[in-house]
Amino acid sequence: MLGDFAGQDATALAALVAKREVGAEELLDAALAAVDRLNPALNAVVLVQEEIARAAIRNGLPDGPFHGVPFLLKDLGCEAVDFPSHNGSRLFADTRYGLDSAIWERIRATGVVAFGRTTAPEGGVGPATESAVYGGPTRNPWDLTRTPGGSSGGAGAAVAAGIVPAAHGSDGGGSVRIPASSCGLFGFKATRARFPDGPYVGEGWAGMAIDGFLTRSVRDAATLHDACAGADLGAPYWAPPLGEGHLAAIRRPPRRMRVALCDTMLDGRPIHEDCRKAVHDAARLLADLGHHVEPARPKVDIAGMMRAWTDIVACGTALSIRAKCAARGRPLEPGEVENVALGAIDRAVAVSGADYLAAVGKIHAFGRELSAFFEPWDILLTATLAEPPALVGRFAHTDRDFVHFRTGAGMVFDYSPFCAAFNASGQPAASLPLYWSDGGLPIGAHLAARFGADEELMALCAELEAARPWAHRRPPLFA
Q1: What is the architecture of the domain spanning 2-302+359-478?
Q2: What's the pLDDT at 58?
Q3: Which is the catalytic residue, given 85, 101, 151, 431?
Q4: What is the predicted pLDDT for the residue at 73?
Q5: What are the residue boundaries of the Amidase domain, all occurrences included (predicted)?
Q6: Which is the catalytic residue, given 85, 152, 175, 416?
Q7: 425 an active-site residue?
Q8: Could you tell me what percent of the chain has a pLDDT over 70?
Q9: Would you list the domain boundaries of the chain?
Q10: Separation of alpha carbons 449 and 148, rounded Å
């Protein structure tokens, strides 16, 4: 049965359910069968809650736009009473929640049938998904020797392999867009505070982290973004209000835009030739569609931003571990967290309160610098990653030097030098699967827009998807 439905997006599957051509139970059966068949190779889906999913169908699903469509939650955040979580960590294994998060309430209202979670690295840190709590790395369905990315790597692998048409993710430094690039999917990071964080979190990583989704189509992402947008009660700040919404925006062509083309890192260093080719391929497509494309690179303190980002994330990681140990009444024990998390604790000890506030101030200053670059430009085009998907093991959490893990030569920042910039600035950004290498690996093109211009960016992504469809491309494990 999976072969009949696995190639369709959530919008198409929901239409089949609405026409009674297929039932929600049948789609759930297909998704569970795909887990049985594919997950031994991928290690992407965990904590399957089949009975919760079947009970939701029996009790009547919300009459939302994705009524009856199978769905997965990231095993980090998206707190839900019915879905325990490991949070990517042995320390947090089998965490249960007394309240549903606001983002889960909004996702559930779309009518999806959630049945489990997808793997994430410990603490959501890093561009690969290889947490010890899952017994091994998560692998890329395009090439099992490579990572599907992180931190929403399990979500990317599950959607790319055809287990579900869309899945929840989150993005604090590229964690939706990196898996999208690595897995040949669409990933969109919304403007800061577009989605609710409560009641468990006021803001993630000083406002840099936000929920999101991995999808096969732009229209699925637009639907999910419309359904989940808006601050929850008591939110510390709100994103600029939407206009007609993302779905309305993608139904008509966007205006012709001024696109800045950067085919290097933001500091001018070269990127892998496959990634440079992907940037120029996207530039030609944009020009063919009538957009004005011209080389330009923002002159911003990207290295300073990454140092500040590293300190903020180290402090956030240390805080969550300390709170867990305090709640259970005993200190951290050997083997409960991996070396990167231990390194984050080490780094956090060296960061004073004044240092932390200075790091937040640096992030805010960087956001102003990057936003100023966009005054004459509508879009900045770069690669999503500086290299093709990395081999499994390259970013395993074995390095206890947290600063080196993030900013050392050949480490995270060299591999992913673009995404975190827009978590820092809060601007919307997206990775589009427009290019594949000669070796058959997806290489994402990254588009970023002005703060609050989510609908316009989504419309541009839809125009590119229509001009260069990608849905027909399937990884070897999809068959």
Answers
A1: Alpha-Beta Complex (3.90)
A2: 98
A3: 151
A4: 99
A5: 26-457
A6: 175
A7: no
A8: 99
A9: 2-302+359-478
A10: 25
